[in-house]
Amino acid sequence: MKRIAVLTSGGDAPGMNACIRAIVLTAEHYNIEVFGYRHGYNGLLNQEYKPLDRDKIANILQAGGTVLRSARCLEFKSEASAQKAAANLDELNIEALLVIGGDGSFRGAHHLSQYWDKQIIGLPGTIDNDIWGTDATIGYFTAIETALDSIDKVRDTADAFERIFLVEVMGRHAGFIGLSAAVSAGADQVLLPELIKDSTSALQSILYHIQTARKIKGNTSYIIVITENLWPGGVTALSEVLTKETGTDCRPVILGHVQRGGSPVAQDRMLATKLGAYAVEAAIAGKTHIMIGESAHRVVEVPLEETWSKTKELDPYLVKIQSQLFDIAQGHIAQNLD
Length: 338
Ligand code: F6P
What we know:
This protein is of the alpha/beta class. It has helices at residues 16-29, 40-45, 79-91, 103-113, 140-161, 176-185, 199-217, 234-246, 266-284, 306-309, 316-325, 331-337, and strands at residues 3-8, 33-37, 49-52, 96-101, 119-124, 164-169, 189-191, 222-227, 250-254, 290-295, 298-303.
């Protein structure tokens, strides 16, 4: 194998640079050239690339974002685009393409594989952690830390004013960031897409929980972590309802894209480095149409289609203890009510 290419696609995630670095250093070790396509699949269509070597990736390990830039490329869904990309890759004699991104990026890779007969390998890079087949995705750990840091700060002012706060975290349609941030921050409630199917009945239980908790504990801060795209009308609408129904000020905080930025934490750097290096060795071994992930601390190869056709579940034990620790119907809190 003489030349491979790499691109980053979809929402950027802290650790993508660490992964690019590991790919370049590992490839250099095996005397393989690496071309980096810029702006995700757009770069593939426009033949926008740059050769990467040791100097180009110096000191990017600790940087957030992606030095290759990223994009969401809807145009890539067409047959003509995939054919163009295949021709561009062949023009540069690329033998394997490594795609760092989420499920949309992997679908793009699968689409390309129908028109390009060389190797394609995916690397899970998204803060959402919603990729089946890997315990964690690159960027997820940093996003949790960022969310946690903000929720801790919100707690200070919530305590000072004895207010309710509704903190919206990212996750698209998955509750991984929400659950981990809530457990780590000791949030009083967590509202996740996997657990809430009907917002009308959910509202009653949200209110019941707040009102009962305040009856037991008196007026203290109360924090609810909620995943984006969950509540009809968004967190501002829900905050208004909660303020009206409880008679206590409820403030919405949307954490938004800050969760995507920042220097990757050690866990993300380690994961990105491990998976990036392995992807190059898998390419040398002739592997294709797989994602490189990690399961129980071991690197795993997962058929690409399974990464989006199967649904990754929240850790049921974490879900159980989050509700158990703040259970107002049983346990010590209920005993205090008697
Ligand atoms: O996929 C990562 C993510 O940050 C999601 O959590 C979020 O829903 C989405 O990207 C936001 O995308 P954009 O930056 O394109 O608005």
